[in-house]
Specification:
By secondary structure, the chain is α/β, with parallel strands linked by helices. It is 31% helix and 25% strand. The strands form 2 sheets. Strands 1, 10, 11, 12, 13, 14, 15 and 16 form an 8-stranded mixed beta sheet that branches. 39% of the residues are buried. GO terms for molecular function: diaminopimelate decarboxylase activity. Its cofactor is pyridoxal 5'-phosphate.
Length: 355
C-alpha cells in the first residue's frame, strides 16, 4: 500500500504545481537508491561497471542525470548512439543489436568504437581487419547472438586468426539458470583456449526481479564464485534498463469524463493505455477525490480504440471531472515504446527530488 505521506505529496504536486497533464514525474531520489543498490552488489565482481540500457528510456534529462552517476550506456540503434554521445564518451558505450547496417558497423569501427556482432554474416560482410572482435553470445533459445561453439563460426575464426576479445551475454531474467549458462560458456571458452583472450564481459540486463525481491547481493555472490572458479578478473559490465529506471516515475492524469452506468463508474482520462502501456501496465496508486463513497470503476484512455483500458474493475472513490489519477510505475519502456494514435504526443516529463 502506498504510504500516506507519499500519496499526500503526489496529490499535492498534482493540485498545486501541475497545470498541464498528463505528465510523467521522475523521482531522482529513487534513481539514486537503485543505482546505489547496483553498485553495492557489483563490487562483488572484479573491475565491474554499471551501464544503463538506453532502450528502456531515452529522455535527455534522465541521460544527463545518469551521466554523473553511472559508468556508461548501452545503445541499440544509430539514433540512440548519437544521442548517447551527448552525455557519455565513446569509450563508455556498449553498442549492439540487429538494427545496425553493415555501413553503420564499419563507421562505428572507424570512429574507434566497438560493435558487438550479432551474426556471422555481419562479421563476414563488414570484413574485420582487427585480430579481435566483440560478439553477442547466443544464450538459450534467444534469436539474438552468435553460437560461438558452432563449427562454422570456429572455422571462420581459425581461418582468419580471429580472437574473441569481448563477449556480451544477455538474458531476459537473471537467475540461477543464467549463472549455469554463463558457467557453461566459460567452460567451453576455456576448453578451446579462448577464455584467456577475453578482455571484457558484458552481462546485459534482466535484473528487475532481483531488484524487486532485494536479491541483487545474493545473485552477485553466486556469480562471483563462477568468476573465481575460472580466475576471471577482466572488466565486467552490467546494463540494467528497466531495473534501473522503472520504479522512479509516476504518471499524473486528469479525468476528462465520468459516468455511472449500472453502478459501475466509467472514467476517461486525458492519456491512453494504448499509446503508453505497450510493454507493462502500471496501477493506480492515488487520486485527488475527497469523496468517501466507493464504486466499482473502469478507467479508459482517451483514444477511439475500444480496448484502450487504463484500469479495469477497480474499487475506488467516486470522482468528478478534473480530479487527478496517479499511475505507477511508468519509468521504463513507456517513453521509448509509445504509440501516437490521433497524433497524441508522449506526456511532458520532469525530474524532481521533492517526494
Amino acid at each position: 500500500m502506498l504510504k500516506e505521506d507519499l500519496k499526500s505529496s503526489l496529490v499535492s504536486i498534482s493540485n498545486q504545481k501541475i497545470r498541464n497533464t498528463p505528465i510523467v514525474i521522475y523521482d531522482v531520489k529513487l534513481i539514486d537508491v537503485i543505482v546505489k543498490d547496483f553498485y553495492d552488489a557489483i563490487t562483488l565482481l572484479p573491475n565491474s561497471k554499471l551501464y544503463f540500457a538506453m532502450k528502456a528510456n531515452s529522455n535527455k534529462d534522465i541521460l544527463k542525470y545518469l551521466s554523473t552517476r553511472i559508468d556508461g550506456v548501452d545503445v541499440a540503434s544509430s539514433k540512440e548512439l548519437e544521442l548517447a554521445l551527448n552525455f557519455f564518451s565513446a569509450k563508455n558505450l556498449s553498442i549492439n543489436g540487429p538494427a545496425f547496417s553493415v555501413e553503420e558497423i564499419r563507421n562505428i569501427s572507424k570512429r574507434g568504437m566497438m560493435y558487438d556482432f550479432n551474426s556471422l554474416t555481419q562479421i563476414e560482410l563488414v570484413g574485420i581487419k582487427e585480430d579481435s572482435i566483440s560478439v553477442r553470445v547466443k544464450i538459450g533459445e534467444s534469436r539474438f547472438g552468435i553460437d560461438i561453439f558452432e563449427a562454422k563460426f570456429k572455422k571462420y575464426c581459425t581461418r582468419n586468426t580471429l580472437k574473441i576479445g569481448k563477449i556480451h551475454v544477455h538474458s531476459e531474467t537473471k537467475d540461477n539458470l543464467f549463472i549455469h549458462q554463463l558457467e557453461e560458456i566459460f567452460l567451453e571458452l576455456d576448453k578451446g583456449g579462448m577464455l584467456k583472450h577475453i578482455k571484457q564481459i558484458n552481462l546485459g540486463g534482466g535484473f528487475l526481479e532481483l531488484v524487486l525481491n532485494n536479491q541483487l547481493i545474493d545473485f552477485f555472490e553466486k556469480l562471483s564464485k563462477v568468476y573465481k572458479k575460472f580466475d576471471i578478473r577482466v572488466e565486467t559490465i552490467i546494463e540494467p534498463g528497466q531495473a534501473l529506471i522503472m520504479l522512479s516515475a509516476y504518471l499524473i492524469t486528469k479525468i476528462i469524463d465520468v459516468d455511472c452506468i449500472n453502478d459501475i463508474q466509467k472514467i476517461v482520462v486525458n492519456t491512453s493505455a494504448y499509446n503508453l502501456f505497450s510493454w507493462s501496465r502500471p496501477v493506480i496508486i492515488a487520486n485527488s477525490s475527497k469523496n468517501t463513497n466507493s464504486l466499482k470503476t473502469i478507467v479508459y484512455g482517451e483514444t477511439c480504440f475500444e480496448e484502450d483500458i487504463m484500469c479495469e474493475e477497480k474499487i475506488m472513490p467516486e470522482v468528478k471531472v478534473n480530479d487527478f489519477l496517479i499511475f505507477y510505475p511508468i519509468g521504463a519502456y513507456s517513453q521509448s515504446n509509445h504509440n501516437c494514435l490521433h497524433l497524441l504526443d508522449f506526456p511532458e516529463e520532469i525530474l524532481i527530488n521533492e517526494l
